[in-house]
Amino acid sequence: MATFEYNALTSAGRLMTGAIEAGSRQEAGELLEQMQLDVNSIEKAKPKKPKTAIGRSEFMLFNQQLASITKAGIPLEKGLRELANDVSSHSMRRLIEAIAGELEAGESIEEAFEKRQKRFPPLYGRILKAGVETGRLSEMLTSLNRHLELANRTRRIIFEALCYPAVILVLAAIILTGVFTMIIPPFKEVLSEMVAGELNPLTTTFFVMADNLVKFWVGFGCVVAAVLIGFAMLSTSAQGRRFKESLFLKVPVIGRVYYSSVLSRMAEAMAMMVGAGCDMPLCLRLSAGTTGSEKLILESEMLAGQIEQGTNILEAGQLCRMIPRLFLYSIQLGTQRNELQDNLYSLGQMYADQAKCGQARLQSVLLPMMIIGVGGVVATAVLAMFLPMVQIIQGLSA
To answer: Domain residue spans in the chain?
Structure first.
């Protein structure tokens, strides 16, 4: 069935527009005639744009406000109504009001958010449900915001560290392109004659680049495009995302920050699920899903399956590479001492501190490394142009 938009006149001569579902345009016309409408036009309705996720900053603000309201003891339905009044975005206001209306009608909070899982982060509804059932909703929302802030700070550090060197690199590329196009070619024959055609390899390389500058930039653009397309294709499957994540984890400093961040998120999510009364296999599956890490999801699924078969968590985790031994030992020890939730919160804090230390190191190392790299490229180009002069001077002095 397709949707058709129509323009018609009623028997009284009034103009009427609307939409009707039918198998074809002809069938739609017949249905409208049965409704005693004089049809002027029928067009197939354009598909509606899919609803996209709300912005990261917008969601963090919403989550923080919701945490403050629940901490003050305001009922969730009333709190959402109050939030809707303070939101400046019309789409966000309608979204919150719709959720509040469903909660007032008796629908569970998990169901209300699951309907809108494309707009909110994964398992957000379940986190809210767990918080309501355990009476620790404000604490859970604050924990989630802390994780989001940690991830945002890492992105900001990387962006700020790359932005300035990237601008320098682009300017350097423009300048070098101008040099290779207008300055180097006229000197090629002169310098070659001065050193009897025995140019050093570095200068020869730059002359070859000058002769093939267009081909070089086309090839460079093709390589960049191929890499971007390859990464986009990897993101379409779980196996591809795991491979991409493996590459990302091998990046110095950045990989370690990411690793500590996802472990922190998993530990805190597990603590929330334990507080909600979930068993260990379900805790592992749900908490891994909140991290977005395909490697963690795969290992957690394997762990959960073996635990359901009666295997000890330490024995089940012997083949784990993403989940560290300390993580599993803390879970086992917390279970034995009936301190599992506290142990998981401590683990989450420990990994969060590790991620923050990595961020500080990243901030102090990445920018100088990028500047040194750009400076090295420019210095090499200058050296390549002056080396023939050095050859000439050495030849004269000899």
So the answer is: 2-44, 56-145, 160-398
Q: Are 265 and 146 in contact, with CB atoms under 8 Å apart? A: no
Cα–Cα distance, 80 to 59 (Å, whole number): 14
CATH number for the domain running over 56-145: 1.20.81.30
Pairwise CA distance, residues 135 & 120, whole Å: 22
Q: How far is CA 122 from CA 242, 293, 321, in A?
A: 18, 12, 24
Answering whether pTM is above 0.85, one says no
CB contact at 8 A, 13 and 30: no
Residue 162 contacts residue 366 (beta carbons within 8 Å): yes
- Which residues contact residue 222 at a Cβ distance below 8 angstroms, ignoring those fewer than 6 apart? none
Which tokens sit at 346?
A: 């401590």
Distance CA 323, CA 300 (A): 8
pLDDT digits (tens, 9 = 90+) for 82-113: 888 777 777 788 888 888 888 888 877 777 77
CA distances from 294 to 284, 330, 346 (A): 13, 23, 24
**Count of alpha carbons within 13 angstroms of residue 110, beta-carbon side:** 8
How far apart are alpha carbons 358 and 368 in whole angstroms?
A: 16
Token pair for residue 257?
């920050």
Residues 6+ apart with CB under 8 A from 4: 19, 20, 21, 22, 25, 28, 42, 43, 44, 45
User: Which segment of 66-75, 221-230, 272-281, 369-378 scores lowest on mean pLDDT?
Assistant: 369-378
CB-based contacts of 256: which residues, under 8 Å, 6+ apart? 354, 358
Q: Say how far apart CA 118 and CA 67 lie, in whole Å.
A: 21
Q: In whole angstroms, give the CA distance from residue 301 to residue 115.
A: 25
- Strands ordered across the beta sheet of 2-9: 15-22, 2-9, 38-44
Here the tokens at position 177 are 């392109």
Residues 6+ positions from 62 with CB-CB distance below 8 Å:
54, 83, 87, 92, 96
DSSP 3-state of 9: strand
The count of other CB atoms within 10 Å of the CB of residue 147 is: 21
